[in-house]
Design goal:
The protein is of the alpha/beta class. It has helices spanning 15-29, 48-54, 73-80, 94-97, 127-140, 158-166, 179-188, 204-207, 224-233, 251-264, 275-278, 285-299, 316-333, 357-366, 395-404, 412-431, 454-461, and strands spanning 4-10, 31-37, 63-66, 84-86, 114-119, 144-148, 171-175, 192-196, 210-213, 238-240, 271-273, 303-306, 373-376, 381-385, 388-392. The protein has 17 helices and 15 strands.
Length: 462
């Protein structure tokens, strides 16, 4: 069988590195590779239209891989009649592009843990505010919107709130121990009660919906077995929550109680309220949510209750949605939850490739125009243009040197642009992230694309 013929496009500066890498990959992945260095030093400066003017394809080419900074490959496909695809921004990641380090399997993304997202202190909000929060939680991945009531009070508007959220096409639970509130919520369409114990248990059969049963005394699980017996005798559907305690208040012991209950009730549905940890720990929530979702997946706990009130946990629902897919695949397939989905790697990048000092000097020698190329090496920020190379840990020092060099194009707009890009490069150095000029830093699922930034649109038109 004839092997696939792949044509690789690059710039003059990276030509040798690309040829060496393609040569290594040909045998491993079974293709025939050709490399074309177009008449430009830095591949990152290529546009699709520019490539179309300079590209020539060898006979029999089955697909073309262009540098990772290129966009609008559809233009190239129309012009040449073969598939084009965007490769990595760095040639050393070409092997990964061909699947050399794994990546997401075709069936990745399945899950079986339900996310219940609470609107805390719902009686304090207007109906429109409740609906707004409910929409946002649903869009983030929540399966059920939990209407959180206020202890010691009876909320006259509970039915209206439940109905309003239901009218949005969302499922609803009611978070209250007050039988009067729960009854109104159930009639309005709530499908789950958080929670029941010996104080309100006798009313559960009248509501006609599923309940979450909790212990009367968390530390000893007192009352839990009796409540379960009652619910079973009345055919009330339920799930068990032994209650997760915050760190400093018996977290490890409370986690052990989930294992204890699962062993005693191996086939019963369970729920874990994970907000007690994410909201009450001075720590970004993504890692905590992922760890707790892994515990739930292993223990067969098929629903979690979360909140996203405090600022460091403001994306908890989205984090849980990503994490439940990650841990499901990991446990079902017996593989570590690694190199599958890096959207929860937010603060630092999964992998950082650093150039050696000689690279920047060589690059600066190749540049003949006054447009600055900004790069970062993990310690210093580098600014290069027209055979000049400025570098320092402090971008202000770099800008002073650029100003002294009296570049003719250093108008206010260009100065602002350089400051913006060097700030990103500095952040990348400080946090251990990769920096690529005119590209957003990778913040995982929090990344906001800079593709349509105003200055870039203006530069492209020019």
């Amino acid at each position: 069988m004839t092997s696939e013929k792949i044509h690789f496009v690059t710039g003059r500066l990276a030509e040798k590195a690309v040829r060496d890498e393609v040569s290594r990959l040909e045998a491993e992945f079974g293709f025939q590779g050709t490399v074309q260095a177009l008449p430009i030093s830095v591949a990152a400066l290529m546009t699709a239209k520019w490539i179309a003017r300079h590209l020539s394809l060898p006979e029999g080419t089955s697909r073309v891989i262009v540098p990772g900074f290129c966009d609008q490959v559809g233009v190239l496909q129309e012009a040449f009649g073969v598939p084009f695809e965007i490769g990595p921004k760095d040639v050393r990641r070409l092997r990964e592009h061909f699947g050399g380090t794994g990546g997401q399997p075709e069936n990745y993304g399945e899950y079986d843990i339900e996310i219940i997202a609470e609107i805390n202190h719902a009686p304090r909000f207007q109906r429109e505010q409740i609906c707004k929060q409910a929409r946002e939680l649903g869009e983030a991945g929540a399966d059920v919107i939990d209407i959180g009531c206020l202890p010691g009070q009876t909320w006259p508007g509970v039915a209206d709130a439940v109905k309003a959220v239901r009218d949005l096409g969302l499922r609803v639970s009611i978070d209250s121990l007050n039988p009067a509130e729960i009854s109104e919520a159930a009639r309005a369409g709530a499908e789950l009660v958080l929670s029941v114990n010996q104080t309100n248990l006798q009313n559960a059969p009248d509501w006609g919906i599923e309940v979450v049963v909790i212990p009367d005394e968390f530390e000893t699980l007192a009352g839990l077995d009796e409540s379960i017996d009652f619910l079973q005798s009345k055919n009330v559907p339920f799930r068990i929550d032994p209650i997760l305690e915050p760190i400093g208040f018996g977290f490890a012991r409370s986690l052990g109680r989930y294992f204890e209950v699962r062993k005693k009730y191996p086939n019963q549905q369970m729920m874990m309220g994970i907000g007690n940890l994410t909201e009450l720990t001075d720590c970004d929530s993504a890692g905590i949510n992922t760890l707790l979702m892994g515990i739930c997946q292993e223990q067969g706990i098929r629903s979690v209750l979360t909140t996203q009130v405090i600022n460091w946990a403001r994306s908890s629902v989205k984090e849980c949605d990503i994490a439940r897919r990650l841990v499901f695949h990991s446990i079902r397939n017996g593989v570590p939850p690694k190199h599958l989905d890096n959207r929860l790697v937010v603060l630092r990048d999964e992998k950082v490739i650093r150039e050696k000092t000689a690279y920047f000097s060589e690059l600066a020698d190749q540049i003949k125009d006054a447009n600055f190329r900004i790069q970062a090496d993990g310690k210093e920020v580098h600014a290069m243009a027209s055979h000049q190379h400025f570098h320092h840990q402090d971008p202000f020092e770099i800008f002073d040197r650029i100003s002294d060099a009296d570049f003719s194009n250093l108008d206010p707009s260009h100065s602002f642009y350089l400051g913006f890009e060097m700030c990103k490069a500095l952040i990348a150095n400080q946090l251990g992230k990769e920096y690529h000029q005119d590209q957003a830093l990778n913040w995982g699922h929090l990344t906001v694309s800079e593709k349509d930034r105003h200055r870039l649109r203006r530069r492209k038109r020019g």
